[in-house]
Design brief:
- It is a single chain.
- The chain is 27% helix and 33% strand.
- The protein is built from 5 helices and 8 strands; from the N terminus they run E-E-H-H-H-E-E-E-H-E-H-E-E.
- It has an 8-stranded mixed β-sheet, sandwiched between helices.
- Strand 5, helix 4 and strand 6 form a beta-alpha-beta unit.
- Helix 4 packs across helix 5.
- It starts with 7 loop residues before the first strand and ends in a 13-residue tail after the last strand.
- The model has no long low-confidence stretch (mean pLDDT 94).
Length: 193
Amino acid sequence: MSSWPVWLTAGDLTLRPLAYRDARAWRSARRRNAVWLKPWDATVPPGTDARPASFRSLVWRLNRQARRDLTYPFAIDVDGRFVGQVTVNNVVRGSAQFASVGYWLDREYAGRGIMPRAVAMVIDHCFFTAGLHRIEIAIRPENSNSLRVVEKLGIREVGYAPRFLHIDGAWRDHRIYAVTVEECPEGMQARLP
């Protein structure tokens, strides 16, 4: 089985490649949740040339990187409705075999166990299909919702990274969580009720 593109399903939850056809639903979710997501969204540091990408160029770039095995951009659907995104970033091969995972969810769907399940599905894909060895998740210390995801999955904290990512207009500290394939031979989904 190829590591990309791929569709993952568990009950009413489907993870699939982010697509151009998601534009309207993606923009609507981001607009509705702008205030809720602002403290956690990456921003471009002042003095760089980078401008926010259009959705079309974002999908094009992510799909290009996915074909090169550098990222896996998953849309999250619940009962066929787009509700968020999980992206595997910075895939490193060679002797490392690791990547990082980032995610966001429409506030309307928060607290239903969707994100822990989605992250577990993605990690299982990374370990058992894509052949990665280690997955990291970086979380701002104040982000109680994201901290709850790693807590539910039993992913251990491995470090603290001061001024790690530019988020909401400043360099922000992050707690670093990681899991290796040896720590979950039955898969991450087996850790969920």
